[in-house]
């Protein structure tokens, strides 16, 4: 069985964070792969603005797009962005319950897809 060494180097550029992978199966050959904008996941818990809180842990995706960090939940891709991860998460914490308020205010006019989103938001958000 041959052994393949994989070296992963992470660098930043004007195009955001990138991952470069070099695979060298032997001393004489090498293959290089470029993976743009790697994704990270975080778990959010706790308080939300307006005296609300998350009823259960919420997995969010963190992506880097040029000079912006995008935070989105993984089911409906509700998202927020900012210059830093911390600011983007704070923006997401404001937007997530705000979207609940928006959908709830038009509940009688929502199609089935938006009704499903509303039920999803209600399953994650409660008042303290």
Task: Give a short summary of the structure.
By secondary structure, the protein is α+β, with helices and mostly antiparallel strands. The protein is built from 2 helices and 10 strands, in the order E-E-E-E-E-E-E-E-E-H-H-E. It is 27% helix and 46% strand.
What report would you give on this structure?
The protein has 128 residues and is α+β, with helices and mostly antiparallel strands. The chain folds into two domains: 37 residues, no CATH class; 89 residues, Double Stranded RNA Binding Domain, CATH 3.30.160. The chain contains two helices and ten strands. The strands form three sheets. It has a four-stranded antiparallel sheet with strand order 4-7-8-9. Strands 1-2-3 form a three-stranded antiparallel sheet, with no helix packed on it. It has a three-stranded antiparallel sheet with strand order 5-6-10. Helix 1 packs across helix 2. The longest helix has 21 residues. 12% of the residues are buried. The N terminus is likely disordered.
